[in-house]
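Notebook, p. 212. Picked up where the previous page left off. The plan for this session was modest: take the two constructs that came back from the sequencing core last week, fold each one, and keep the raw output in the notebook itself so nobody has to go hunting through shared drives later. Recording the first one now, exactly as returned: residue sequence, then the structure token string.
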Amino acid sequence: MGAEIATREAFEWVTNESKLMKACSVIGRLQNDIFSHEYEQKRNHPASGVECYMKHHGATEEEAVEFLWKKIRNAWKDIAQEYQKPTPLPVVLMDRILNLARSCNLFYENGDGYTDSRLMKDELTSLLFDPVPL
């Protein structure tokens, strides 16, 4: 199933600024910025989207976070729209991109689970040790 699905045409579609890939990237990047920006600023990391928006627009942290959530919601809408269009990308490959965006939601559902894996304990335990009834 590998080579016949992951064709050159599919690869070129994904790497040429596809709306699906861009939306997935936006979801991951902005969720990370929202949930990790305070921790990262304490460690002198580069400015996140939250700090950049606040500085550029003279906004509060709350306004910046709401703006980024709006961008995330719009990215999910873009993903839904891409699934409705014909593309050279097989659905099975599109599903991989969708699952990456979904995993971002899982990582940040209860805080910054990407940085602090203890927040992911229940999900990881369920995934690795709890059988799925068939």
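Okay, moving on. Second construct, recorded in the same format:
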Amino acid sequence: MPALCTTPDSSLPCSAATDDASSKRLSWGKIMQKLTDFSNHSLHSDDEHFRNVFSHSGLDSVDSVSLSESDFLYDPVEETLCSEVVDLIEQSLTEAKDSALRCSKLLIPDQLMEHIGQELLHLAASEPCGLRGALINLCVEQSNACQSVEQIAVDPDLVPTFQLTLVLRLESGGLWPMIQDLFAPRSPSAPILRHALRLNTGFRVIKKKLYSSEELVIEEC
């Protein structure tokens, strides 16, 4: 059965980390059950809503109802899948503090994860298989170098249709450099790691279609 998982690919500019993939598998059946429950509730609610609209406005058909653009673009399947992917990205980043990033603590702003989710939905909207066709390379930019953290195949049973490279940045300005040592471990037996790191809310995303020769799409978020 399809499941979200992580797979390394040494052919990419940044080689992926080799964590245990089994710990990052997500249940596709669980996702689909959520969607089924949501759809049944949503269809019932929408039916009641439109009946009320028609009864109070005298409209004869749904063609007379003006729906916003967001009503047409909203897809509960993509929304649920995107939420699972964002959780997996956050998990990969958290685990990378002891390996690829070599820091005592990694602070991940909620705003960053929210923006990543919005960007994933935006870039997957024009793809034939939606977000399921994405191959995501997760990297962190530090000291003018790109450190690979993980590679995520959203649906490993599907041939990827597009590749997304997320380049996250470390916080380096403001008050953070002066207080970051407060988050470092104080135990004398703790391994020697760099001090705590904090991710910036801004990031770069690079999109490459794998089924056409179109140019790369690079967005600063």
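Notes on construct two before I forget. The radius of gyration is 21 Å.
Flagging for discussion at group meeting.
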